[in-house]
Design brief:
The complex is a heterodimer.
Chain A: H1 10-42, H2 50-58, H3 61-77, H4 80-110, H5 121-140
Helix pairs in contact in A: 1-3, 4-5
Chain B: E1 2-3, H1 5-11, H2 16-23, H3 27-34, H4 42-52, E2 60-61
Helix pairs in contact in B: 2-3
The chains are: A mainly alpha, B mainly alpha.
Chain lengths: ~140, ~70
């Protein structure tokens, strides 16, 4: 969720470096936490109590929330045009993925199409944001 | 909204990047404003006026510009 360095203001260039470093660290922590959670829930000789499974399943949320905070900090460092482009792209992404998931759930229910896990919603949002950003950027450049 | 940013910048021999640095925005923002694809916010418009040391109404006018 960044943009080319040339397109950023001076303040945002520094923020981009910090953002990339923080996201890389948070990403590594996220991967470690997910592997740890999977190991605890599926591969340990003992079984966790139900509330324990819920707690462990929620742990990847901690680095994910950190990533969100890092993105917001980076977003606030952008100039107003870049903020607008990011926002428009998010709006389009939310609309497209929201409508697609809404519509697909009808197809799952009534036309018995294969079930898709909710876990794909967030990657779909990011992918749609990237595609939307390409078109939004063209609009302003 | 129409503006004289490109002319004023050329009079001072500033590149888009020079002006962007002075305004603390991206070069892309300067380009988008100059080409009429983006209208700056009021705070940015005032900042532009300060950088050129001119009243804001001598830089921006309330006319529709056809984006090139």
């Amino acid at each position: 969720m960044t943009c080319e360095t040339d397109d950023l203001g001076p303040k945002a260039k520094q923020a981009l470096r910090t953002y990339r470093r923080n996201m890389a660290i948070a990403g590594l922590v996220y991967i470690a936490v997910v592997f740890g959670a999977v190991t605890l829930i599926r591969h340990m000789p003992f079984s966790l109590p139900y509330w324990g499974v819920i707690l462990v399943a929620l742990t990847p949320l901690i680095p994910a929330l950190l990533m969100m905070r890092f993105y917001l900090t980076f977003f606030r460092s952008l100039d107003e045009l870049n903020q607008r482009m990011h926002s428009e792209a998010w709006l389009i992404s939310a609309g497209v993925v929201g409508l697609a998931s809404f519509t697909y759930s009808f197809l799952e229910e009534w036309a018995h199409l294969p079930r898709i896990d909710l876990i794909w919603i967030f990657p779909a949002l990011i992918f749609a944001w990237g595609v939307a950003m390409y078109f939004v950027r063209r609009r302003y450049t | 909204m129409k503006n004289r940013l490109k002319v004023l910048r050329a009079e001072r021999n500033w590149s888009q990047a020079d002006l962007a640095d002075r305004l603390e925005v991206s070069r892309q923002s300067v380009n988008a404003i100059e080409t009429g694809k983006y209208d700056p916010s009021l705070p940015l418009a005032f900042k532009i006026a300060r950088v050129f040391a001119m009243p804001i109404e001598q830089i921006f006018s309330d006319e529709v510009e056809v984006a090139s």
